[in-house]
Design goal:
The complex is a heterodimer of chains A (about 80) and B (about 280).
Chain A: H1 3-40, H2 45-81
Chain B: H1 8-15, E1 20-23, E2 29-31, H2 35-40, E3 46-47, H3 48-70, H4 79-98, H5 106-122, H6 130-137, H7 151-183, H8 192-229, H9 236-276
Antiparallel strand pairs in B: 1-2, 1-3
Helix pairs in contact in B: 3-5, 4-5, 5-9, 7-8, 7-9, 8-9
The chains are: A mainly alpha (about 80), B mainly alpha (about 280).
């Protein structure tokens, strides 16, 4: 286990962890507002649900990109360098 | 591949490698035998598996929807016509809710993007080993069946949308109007380098985020399927655990593939709508 590979593992781990944290916090806030909106106006459930999924896709985009690149580093780059 | 018993890392890397046709450093044209060789082929190598599956699935979509349209009856519809009508009504409803200008091309673009991306993503649900195994029996060393896990495919889609955005912007607002939108807001006119920088980044971020969002979701999903598939090499009990995990993840993944195709379509319609708006 050279230092290069150890650093790559740490980098991959940080990418996965921070990405997951960002996604969890973002979608948590979004979901809370969604529930609040339903509680205020239950008849808007269908429309709110559509918009919730659209915005979830947007919020989720960068964390998922971070996770994809983190997984790539952990499995393909480490394998290539080691 | 069945004869040499690869290690976990080799198995994973084998499933992450596309079938790359390109010019080797010594000048011969051939298929790369490994990730290092594929990297040496440079930018102009073609991923044959991506091209085959994306064009094949597109042709399939065109054929089936064309058949539904040409055999359409106004009486009681058959099951396939019913399904096609449901899809078209769904797209129609969404485009009407989002697109405010007049352009006959937007709804067909939305339909094509949604169904094509959905079909390409759907290939991810086929168990990882099955189709590559069939491919090795006919002598093809690598086969990735999900074109959207190849960033080339997603960037191709996003660049097409970007070109459409710029084309419609210039068509509706004129070249000076388009440039004015980039250079003269949000700050006053004499600060136009700052404006250009801000608006340029905002303009470029649209196709980049569109493509990377789709790529990231599908690549992560496929990676998890590959990791779960590693369970099958551990005997019957671990194989049963792997099978359950695969089922659970596949069910979750159905939501993801529908969502990502839908988001790509909606964002395309939103960006085209923004291109048609005159300030």
């Amino acid at each position: 286990m050279t230092q290069e590979i150890a650093l790559l593992y740490i980098a991959g781990g940080i990418m996965l962890g921070v990405g997951a944290m960002g996604a969890a916090i973002g979608i948590g806030v979004l979901g809370a507002r969604f529930l609040e909106g339903i509680a205020r106006q239950p008849e808007m459930l269908g429309m709110l649900r559509t918009q919730f999924f659209i915005v979830m896709g947007l919020v989720d985009a960068l964390p998922i990109i971070a996770i994809a690149i983190g997984l790539y580093v952990l499995f393909a780059v480490v394998g290539g360098a080691g | 591949m069945a004869s040499e018993n690869p290690t976990s890392t080799e198995y994973i890397q084998h499933h992450l490698q596309n079938l790359t046709l390109g010019v080797h450093p010594d000048g011969t044209i051939g298929i790369a035998h490994g990730a290092a060789e594929a990297r040496e082929m440079g930018f102009w190598a073609i991923h044959l598996d991506t091209m085959f599956w994306s064009i094949g699935l597109g042709a399939l979509f065109l054929y089936f929807f064309y058949r539904a349209a040409s055999k359409a009856t106004s009486g009681v519809p058959g099951k396939w016509q019913n399904f096609v009508e449901m899809v078209i009504e769904f797209i129609d409803h969404n485009v009407r809710g989002t697109f405010t200008a007049k352009n006959d091309l937007v709804a067909p673009i939305a339909l094509t993007l949604f169904v094509w991306i959905l079909l390409m993503n759907f290939m991810d649900l086929v168990p990882v080993d099955w189709i590559p195994l069939l491919a090795t029996w006919i002598g093809i060393p690598y086969m990735k069946v999900v074109p959207t896990t190849d960033p080339n495919a997603t960037f191709g889609l996003a660049i097409a949308v970007f070109v459409l955005m710029i084309y419609y912007s210039i068509k509706e607002k004129g070249f000076s109007g388009f440039f004015g939108e980039l250079a003269f807001q949000p700050f006053p006119k004499w600060m136009f380098p700052v404006n250009l920088l801000l608006e340029g980044v905002s303009l470029l971020s649209k196709p980049v985020s569109l493509s990377l969002r789709l790529f990231g979701n599908l690549y992560a999903g496929e990676m998890i399927f590959i990791l779960i598939a590693l369970f099958y090499s551990g005997g019957l009990m671990w194989g049963a655990v792997g099978g359950t995990l695969q089922l659970v993840w596949a069910v979750f993944h159905i939501l993801i593939i529908l969502l990502q195709a839908f988001i790509f379509m909606i964002l395309t319609v939103v960006y085209l709508d923004m291109a048609h708006q005159a300030h």
